[in-house]
Design brief:
The chain is α+β, with helices and mostly antiparallel strands. It has two helices and five strands.
Length: 97
């Protein structure tokens, strides 16, 4: 009886850990992609607060299918208006095709 109880407890632990790990992987490597024509692009200013130190930094964005997407300076300079692109965002960065 004791061995059966240990087996059941270990099985539940393994199942719970696998669900937690799957959720962790989804949050780390979730891929948001958008495809379409670059309608507009621009530079704005954003204010960042790091431990009470306020700094103003440029924020580069492009507009795809009416959706404003924040991108890095390198991607902003590479993308041309009225051109078909596919952009993929992850937690770790942005990729364009």
């Amino acid at each position: 009886m004791k061995k059966i109880l240990y087996f059941i407890i270990w099985s539940f632990c393994i199942v719970l850990l696998s669900f937690a790990y799957e959720d962790y992987l989804y949050s780390q490597f979730k891929l948001d992609s958008s495809q379409g024509m670059v309608e507009d692009k621009g530079v704005g200013k954003t204010t960042k607060n790091i431990y009470g130190n306020f700094t103003e930094e440029p924020e580069y964005w492009i507009q795809l299918n009416g959706e404003k997407i924040i991108v890095t300076k390198a991607i902003y300079e590479e993308v041309q208006q009225h051109r078909q692109i596919k952009i993929m965002n992850t937690k770790h960065g942005t990729v364009i095709e």
